[in-house]
Structures are given as C-alpha cells and as structure tokens.
C-alpha cells in the first residue's frame, strides 16, 4: 500500500496493490485514519486500479472512511476499479455514499464542485 497527500483540496490518495481483504484491511484502515489526523486532509481517494480482489473487509474499509470523511466535511472517491472489483462496489452500495469514478480527476471535479 502507498499513501500520499495531494495538495489539492486536502485529499489523501491511497493506492492499493493486490488484494483488499481481511489481512490488508486492518493496516489500510489504521494507516488512512492516522494520516487523516496527521495531515488534516478531509477527502480520501482510493486508487483501486491495482486491486485484484476485494471482499467484505475491503468494503468495510471504504464505508468506514465515508463516515470519517463526512464528519470532516469531506468525501471519499473510489477510482480505477475494474471488472469484479467494480461489480462488488456496485453490489455493496458504496456508489451511493462515495463518488465512484474512472480517474481521480473525474472524482475530484465533484469534490471541487462541493467544496
């Protein structure tokens, strides 16, 4: 996993590689929450372009960050998901509470419009 803070609109971009499952979700959740507190970011953008598998634990990570960012006045963006991962996002209802986009730029346009 790779984390970095984008200077635009206080957005923490989280690049995830491989499987977003029970084993990875604990570390991702802790790292994202720690970085949100440390940096003052309000938005979280999950780059799922390199995720090969996601289970209910991954859904929980994203949904939990939706709750956290909402309390900060921000949003969650999920982008780059393909195939099976995109289907899981749609079936889980994440697309109803987070901005799902093809790219971070597309997702940021909505965040910028709502800032």
Task: Describe this structure as you would to a colleague.
The protein has helices at 22-39, 56-71, 83-92, 94-97, 104-113, and strands spanning 2-6, 11-20, 43-54, 76-79, 99-101. It has one domain (2-113): STAS domain (Transcription Regulator spoIIAA), CATH 3.30.750. The mean pLDDT is 89. It is globular and about 30 Å long. It is α/β, with parallel strands linked by helices and 115 residues long. It is 50% helix and 30% strand. It has a 5-stranded mixed beta sheet, with helices on both faces. Helix 1 packs parallel to helix 2. It has 5 helices and 5 strands, in the order ββαβαβααβα.
What oligomeric state do the depicted chains represent?
A: single chain
- Biggest pleated-sheet summary: 5 strands, mixed
Q: Looking at the structure, what is the overall shape?
A: globular
Q: Give the CATH architecture.
A: 2-Layer Sandwich
CATH level-3 fold name: Transcription Regulator spoIIAA
Mean of residue pLDDT?
89
Q: Approximately how much beta-strand content do the residues carry?
A: 25-35%
Question: What descriptors fit this protein?
Answer:
115 residues, alpha/beta, Transcription Regulator spoIIAA, 5-stranded mixed β-sheet, 5 helices, 30% strand
In a nutshell, what does this entry contain?
The chain has 115 residues and is an alpha/beta fold. The chain has helices at residues 22-39, 56-71, 83-92, 94-97, 104-113, and strands spanning 2-6, 11-20, 43-54, 76-79, 99-101.
């Amino acid at each position: 996993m790779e984390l970095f803070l984008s200077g635009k609109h206080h957005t923490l971009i989280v690049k995830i590689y491989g499987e977003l499952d029970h084993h990875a979700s604990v570390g991702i959740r802790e790292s994202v929450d720690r970085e949100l507190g440390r940096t003052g970011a309000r938005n979280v953008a999950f780059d799922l372009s390199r995720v090969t598998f996601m289970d209910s634990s991954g859904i929980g990570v994203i949904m939990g960050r939706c709750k956290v960012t909402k309390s900060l006045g921000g949003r969650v963006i999920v982008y780059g998901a393909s195939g099976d991962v995109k289907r899981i996002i749609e079936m889980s209802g994440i697309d109803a509470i987070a901005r799902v986009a093809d790219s971070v730029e597309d997702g940021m346009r909505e965040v910028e419009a709502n800032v």
